[in-house]
Amino acid sequence: MTSGSTARPNGQLQASKICQFKLVLLGESAVGKSSLVLRFVKGQFNEYQESTIGVAFLTQSVCLEDTTVKFEIWDTAGQERYHSLAPMYYKGAQAAIVVYDITNQETFARVKTWVKELQRQASPSIVIALAGNKADLANKHMVEYEEAQVYADDNSLLFMETSAKTAMNDLFLAIAKKLPKSEPQNLGGAAGRSRGVDLHEQSQQNKSQCCSN
């Protein structure tokens, strides 16, 4: 057994490397950003989720084969009056999920503005994912899957249709796999904010929470 590894109940070695990344969610109000986060972090879904005021902060981990990816999730408010605050939240983010409602064409058009803003102002290495949420309402589709896929391909975005209601969402896992895993770095350093930070030496206690729902 290698140093720093612990055995899982099934006998496999638990990943010894823990990397931390800042992830921000952007998109119009009522597209389901908070619902996606709540389902991912707590495995819960509320039919009538209250609108986020300003920003909400949560954390959750994803276990890969040799690394535990810990997400610091910043769920931003979608109301226009909060738009000017968004750069404060996506600054230094290694990943962003831009969310639209598949039943609302206007929210998809708005997504393109967010993507351009991220491409212009966020870190050049940021991983941007496009989420077509409310896939459980497929009979009310207004944004075709193919249209969104072409847009995502043209802009080098990860893309999935998601549903917080039915827990149809592998996007966080896909992001975790795509993010670069760096060597151990100082959390306070600039490099630590632009790349993954290995928390193994600093957060041994987090291992017991790996992959918790």
From TrEMBL:
It catalyses: GTP + H2O = GDP + phosphate + H(+). Its main location: membrane. It is found in: Cell membrane; Early endosome membrane; Melanosome. Residues 202-213 have a biased composition (Low complexity). Pfam families: Ras. This is small monomeric GTPase. Keywords: Endosome, GTP-binding, Hydrolase, Lipoprotein, Nucleotide-binding, Prenylation, Protein transport, Transport. InterPro entries: P-loop_NTPase (IPR027417), Small_GTP-bd (IPR005225), Small_GTPase (IPR001806).
